[in-house]
């Protein structure tokens, strides 16, 4: 029973601590995943990409509309004075006359060298290509958000180290002041420690500004203007022993080819260029269209031949209406080489798209190899920085012991502390540099954000 109570109490303590981490001074602390999701919904570049998707949907609707018959109506009314032609009798009359006419025409393309069909296919492919491009933009934004997020944590950890060093210096300052007051150390040693403390205060101010600037940079990526109440949650990033480092760059590249949005978009552009070529070739063939037209007319001078009375408006519309219909074929014979030249241009476009695809693949392979080398190098730098910190800390502890017994002057002591400060700052920078570069490599390997 006591064990159960202890477990429950421990779980409650963990829950309370988690809630405290999520909210500080009334501010909601954002996780990396929350930042990424919010950026996907609010980032301006992504919103522009979404508008491009809406445009291609309209293009697809246009392509579908090419298969549907057109239907248009026209109404005309006019008045004339003097000699003119009565449209209902086609006779010349020398008087004031009012006429009206109307017609409805429908036409349809029966054959155009399959250009409408290929135009529809192109619209579908363009929608796919644009979606890949939008997803590629989202990938870049995700990486940008992750980098900005980690930069905040890196700057904040640097600030924490500086604050801890400043507290330690304050303790040294108090001890040195006592030793100077007791005549054990010269006053110059106190001044040296005070200068060190003042320098650390300046570094803390710079570090606080760096944290603020990093927060503002991330908030701008997310389109958040309330910088004061925006902050991120430190999710306790540690150096992972990741299995992706055991995968060769070639294996990462082969997998990346199957899902990378930039490669898929480049392949879709090749397919698009092929459809453009088919559309251009369709201009070689004759085009066939058909139409049907209904028309009628009215004149205020049109009278009954027997009674001489003006024929009514509705009656004239029925008397003088008519239907016309027909078909038209256009045969391309000589067009100043425009058709053949357009075909040649689109053939070049196909080859250009294929070359761009190969160029994108080469660039992807280069980027992956570079990312792999960067990860390895960053980890070695982190290991070296850790060893340096250990060595500098031992040297500092030894210097502190000597300083406390008067065997080292304050200048040498502060130099030992400065070297330790620099080593700890470098360790923090290399830590987060390695974490981010590892995320980039995982990104190329297709590991979802939730598993970062």
Automatic annotation (TrEMBL):
Family affiliation: Belongs to the outer membrane factor (OMF) (TC 1.B.17) family.
Protein name: TolC family protein
Gene3D superfamilies registered for this protein in UniProt: Outer membrane efflux proteins (OEP) (1.20.1600.10)
Lineage: superkingdom: Bacteria
Entry keyword set: Cell outer membrane, Coiled coil, Membrane, Signal, Transmembrane, Transmembrane beta strand, Transport
Organism: Galbibacter pacificus
Pfam family, one: OEP
Signal peptide: 1-18
């Amino acid at each position: 029973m006591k064990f159960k109570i202890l477990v429950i109490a421990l779980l409650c303590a963990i829950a309370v601590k988690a809630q405290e981490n999520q909210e500080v001074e009334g501010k909601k602390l954002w996780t990396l995943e929350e930042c990424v999701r919010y950026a996907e919904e609010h980032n301006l570049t992504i919103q522009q990409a979404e508008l491009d998707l809406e445009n291609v949907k309209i293009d697809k609707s246009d392509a579908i509309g090419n298969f549907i018959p057109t239907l248009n109506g026209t109404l005309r009314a006019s008045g004339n004075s003097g000699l003119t032609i009565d449209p209902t009798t086609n006779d010349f009359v020398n008087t004031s006359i009012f006429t009206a006419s109307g017609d409805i025409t429908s036409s349809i393309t029966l054959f155009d060298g399959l250009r409408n069909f290929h135009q529809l296919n192109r619209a579908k492919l363009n929608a796919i290509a644009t979606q890949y491009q939008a997803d590629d933009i989202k990938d870049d934004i995700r990486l940008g958000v992750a980098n900005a997020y980690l930069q905040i944590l890196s700057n904040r950890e640097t600030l924490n180290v500086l604050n801890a060093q400043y507290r330690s210096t304050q303790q040294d300052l108090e001890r040195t002041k006592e030793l100077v007051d007791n005549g054990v150390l010269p006053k110059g040693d106190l001044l040296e420690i005070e200068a060190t403390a003042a320098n650390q205060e300046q570094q803390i101010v710079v570090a606080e500004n760096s944290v603020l600037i990093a927060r503002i940079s991330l908030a701008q990526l997310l389109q958040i203007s309330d910088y004061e109440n925006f902050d991120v949650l430190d999710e306790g990033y540690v150096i992972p022993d990741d299995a992706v480092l055991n995968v060769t760059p070639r294996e990462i590249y082969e997998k990346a080819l199957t899902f990378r949005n930039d490669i898929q978009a480049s392949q879709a552009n090749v397919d698009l260029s092929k459809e453009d070529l088919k559309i251009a070739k369709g201009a070689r063939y004759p085009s066939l269209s058909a139409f049907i037209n209904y028309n009628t007319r009215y004149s205020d001078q049109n009278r009954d031949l027997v009674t001489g009375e003006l024929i009514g408006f509705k009656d004239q519309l029925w008397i003088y209406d008519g239907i016309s219909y027909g078909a038209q074929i256009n045969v391309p014979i000589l067009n100043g080489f425009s058709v053949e030249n357009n075909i040649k241009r689109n053939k070049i476009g196909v080859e250009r798209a294929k070359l761009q695809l190969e160029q994108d693949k080469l660039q992807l392979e280069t980027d992956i190899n570079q990312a792999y080398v960067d990860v390895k190098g960053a980890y070695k730098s982190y290991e070296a920085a850790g060893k340096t910190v250990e060595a500098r800390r031992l040297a500092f502890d030894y210097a502190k012991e000597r300083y406390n017994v008067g065997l080292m002057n304050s200048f040498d002591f502060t130099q030992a502390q400065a070297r330790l400060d620099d080593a700890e700052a470098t360790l923090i920078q290399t830590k987060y540099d390695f974490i981010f570069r590892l995320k980039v490599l995982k990104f190329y390997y297709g590991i979802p954000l939730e598993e970062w």
